[in-house]
UniProtKB/TrEMBL annotation:
It comes from the Bacteria. It comes from Thermus brockianus. This is Excisionase. Residues 74-121 form the Helix-turn-helix domain.
């Protein structure tokens, strides 16, 4: 089995690391610890330790992982792929003002941070809707619980 990481300019493959090794390494990732790689050492800040723990946690759950800088400008194809939607649907979201973008000539560009903000807002909206439906179901005595 393989893990694939899309670098936005191609796909990079790496062999899968055994879960137990990942789990043990993740448990030891705490702020202040020092990682050594040959002659280079890196002290883990709280933010870096958390980032690595989150990344390894996703790998342990067999979730696909992609690391994209927040300031990266994405094409509409890349943005659609990250959202898991079709490119035409993404373009409609852009044109409706749901996600900010800018034009470079005739091409649209989307900042990764704006895409993530849309994703978070969309998840929150979905959770709020689910909570409202559950509340209404309880009021009507339909047996729904949160």
């Amino acid at each position: 089995m393989w893990y694939a990481a899309n670098t936005m300019s191609g796909v990079l493959f790496a062999t899968r690391t055994p879960h137990e090794d990942l789990r043990r390494f993740r448990e030891r990732l705490t702020p202040g610890k020092v990682l050594h790689l040959e002659e280079v050492s890196l002290v883990l800040t709280p933010e870096l330790a958390q980032l690595l723990q989150d990344l390894l946690g996703a790998l342990l759950r067999n979730e696909p992982v992609r690391v994209v800088p927040l300031e990266a400008e994405l094409t509409t194809s890349q943005a659609a792929e990250l959202l898991g939607v079709s490119r035409p649907y993404l373009v409609r979201l852009l044109e409706e003002g749901e996600i900010p973008y800018r034009k470079v000539g005739t091409h649209r560009r989307v900042l990764a941070k704006d895409l993530l903000a849309y994703l978070e807002a969309s998840k929150k909206k979905g959770q709020d809707l689910l909570n409202e439906l559950t509340r209404e179901g309880q009021e009507l005595g339909l047996g729904y619980t949160e």
